[in-house]
Structures are given as structure tokens and as C-alpha cells.
Amino acid sequence: YERRTSALLISGLMVKAVRGSGVTVNFSLSDGADVNVAIKRIDGGVVRVITRSANAGLNSVVWDGRDGQGKPLPAGVYLVEVVARSSDGSYVKGITMFNLR
Q1: Would you state the pLDDT for residue 17?
Q2: Among residues 81, 79, 61, which one has the least CA distance to residue 3?
Q3: Are 28 and 11 within 8 A, CB to CB?
């Protein structure tokens, strides 16, 4: 789903999980923003957060499949939540599920 409080938009949120290559989270932003990409268990518990600045257009974030302590996560269904916040404080959130094998 998508939640929006401004003209900032997330589109094309997709997750590509390739065994041995990690997980790539792809998304497009309508404008530059600071982004938090949270990997969550299906129950909503956060296992890792990746924070960075992102430009307008297509963006990719690679996750190594490990939790915040560097331990590999077991196979299963996980959530990716992308929250983008612009310099004026407005934000947008997108979330999707993926299968880590």
C-alpha cells in the first residue's frame, strides 16, 4: 500500500531476491528524499534498516540478507517498507512482501 502526505510519490516498488547475491529493492521517487528501507519479519518486527539519500527517479538498495548483528536470516516471507521523507518534512511510505530463499 502507499501512504502519502505530499506530492512526493513512490512507484514501482519491487524486490528481487537472488540466492547468493542478496536482495535488491527497486523503487522510483518523484523527488529526491532521505529514505529508510526496513526489512521486517511478517509479524512486523524490524530485522534491518538501511538509510540513505535517494534521487528523483529509479533507485536501488541492496541488502545482504543479514540482520543488524550480521547474522544471516532464515528462508521465509519478509516485508520491505520504504519510507521517503523530503526536506520539507513530508513523506510517503510503500510496503511489499517477498520470499527469501
Answers
A1: 83
A2: 81
A3: yes
